[in-house]
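User: I'm putting together a small comparison set for a docking exercise, and I want a reference complex before I start. The sequence is below, and the ligand is fe (iii) ion. Could you produce the 3D structure with the ligand included, as C-alpha cells?
Assistant: Of course. I'll restate your input first, then give the C-alpha cells for the complex.
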Amino acid sequence: MIEENKFLNFSVFTIPVLNDNYIFVAKAHKTSQTWVIDPALAKPVINFLQDKKYKLTAVVNTHHHLDHTGGNLELKNYYNALILAPKNDPITADKKLDTNSKLSFAGEAVQIIEAPGHTLGHILYYFTESKVLFAGDCLFSLGCGRLFEGSPQQMTNSLNKILQLPDNTQVFCAHEYSLDNSKFALSVDSANLALQKKTTQIQNLRNQNKFSIPFKLGIEKQCNPFLRSNAPEIKKYLNLSSSCSTVESFAKLRKLKDNF
Ligand code: ZN
Ligand code: FE
C-alpha cells in the first residue's frame, strides 16, 4: 500500500520496498515537478508514476548506499531526469549538493543540511515552507543511523542541526525501524512518559499495517534517546557523570544499540 501525505505546496507518496525501506515521491500541486527521494529500486517507482501519469524530473539521494540509490540510473534514463546527490558521497550525479546549494521545489526553498555520520557525505533535504525533512538514514523514529563512516562527534553535530529545526517539522526517514527502535529506547529511558505514549502509537499503527512515518520532530525531541544524549536520565543509565559531554554520552549510547 502506498500512503499519501499532503502539504502546503506538494504531496509526498511513500512507497514501501524491500524489507523495510521507504522510497518517497514528492509531487508539486501546481506544476509537474516530481522528485523521487532515495530510490532503492526503479520498478516500483515507474509503476507508481505511470499509474498517476506523473513524469519524474529529478532523482534525489541522501547518501550513497545501494538501498537508497539502486534505482538511480534506470530512472534517470527512463525519464531523462537529473540526479541530485551529496557532494561528498560517491554517487554518479548531474548535480552535487552541499550546504550552499540553492534548490527549490514547488515554489519553496529546499535547504541542504550536511549530516555526516552514517556516511561521510550524508545530506538531509529540508523543505522550508512546508517544514518537511527527508532524513535518509541519519535520524529514524526513536533511533539514528549506524556510524559506518563517520565519528560520534560528527553524528552528534548532525543531530544537533536537526534539533534546531522547528518542532512542527514532519520527518520522513528511509526505513521502518520504529518498533524495533522503541525496544532499545525503552530499555535506556524507561520512565519517559512521552516515549511510552509514542511507543503505544507506533504499536497501534504497525498492528494496522500502517507506516509510522512521517513523524513530528517536536515529539521526537522528547522521546528519541539519540536526541537526548545530554539528558541526565540517559547519562545516569549509561553510568556517566552528568558533566560528561554529549558526544561521550552519544558514543556510549550508539555502541550499546549496536550490540542490543
Ligand atoms: Zn544507509
Ligand atoms: Fe538505508
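The pocket of zinc ion (ligand 1) is lined by residues 63, 65, 118, 137 (CB under 6 Å). The chain has one domain: 3-177+210-223.
User: Thanks, that's exactly what I needed.
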